[in-house]
Amino acid sequence: MSTNVEIEAKILVTAPEFRKLFNFLGVNPRNAIRQVNYYIDTPTSELRGFGFGLRIRERLGEYTLTLKSPLAEGTLEKNQTLTEDDYLALADSGLFPTGPVHDFLALLGFPIKDLRIVTSLTTYRLETTYQNRHLALDRNEYSRQEDYEVESEQSAISLAAETLKNLCREAKIEYRPNNISKHARALKALAN
User: Fold this and answer.
1) Residue 170 scores a pLDDT above 90
2) pTM to 2 decimals?
3) Which tens digit of pLDDT belongs to each residue from 2-54?
4) 149-165 b/e with 16+ CB inside 10 Å = b?
5) DSSP secondary structure string for all residues of the chain
6) Among candidates 83, 108, 109, which has minimal Cα distance to 98?
7) Which of 14, 16, 104, 167 has the lowest CB atom count within 10 Å?
8) What digits encode the pLDDT tens for the residues 52-101?
């Protein structure tokens, strides 16, 4: 299992602004990589109630289980590699995979047997650089909705936000910070 701290700033853009960014950055949207996030919780949203996010991400045939918890700046992520069979056992039979994430949640007293995939979100991601800083351009689909997001991951939230502000200014689009995670947006759409 790996553990890391994720510090990122995000903006939501309109579809025309998204296309404008592709042109501005000189990237081809056909090179985007598909990834699917399967969000996991109990039927009563116990993990969410404690501020945790839990997902399985399928990307290029690989599966990663990630538990996220908020920090003062950023998010602490615990990642565990899964097999497709691990994912299918949860999706089809409600069998949560064993390993460090399972053990951590059990230690905290969460009812592992009640964890289920509650919704999913598909992202078409294109990664590039701008001013020598990493950017991810995401088209997201969930619950018959679509949105467009740009992420900058840096060593400090202020640096990540600065990157996005500069990008918006130079590309001549409105800077609209987004503090609502994909997970939260997918859950909100599901509730509606």
Assistant:
1) yes
2) 0.93
3) 887 888 999 999 999 999 999 999 999 999 999 999 999 999 999 999 999 99
4) bbbbbbeeeeebbbbbe
5) -EEEEE-EEEEEE-HHHHHHHHHHHT--GGG-EEEEEEEEE-TT-HHHHTT-EEEEEEETTEEEEEEEEE-SSSEEEEEEEE-HHHHHHHHHH--PPPSHHHHHHHHTT--GGG-EEEEEEEEEEEEEEETTEEEEEEEEEETTEEEEEEEEE-SSHHHHHHHHHHHHHHHT----B--S-HHHHHHHHHH-
6) 83
7) 16
8) 999 999 999 999 999 999 888 888 899 999 999 999 999 999 999 999 99
Q: What tokens does 58 get? A: 């399928």
Question: Residue holding tokens 């998010």?
Answer: 75
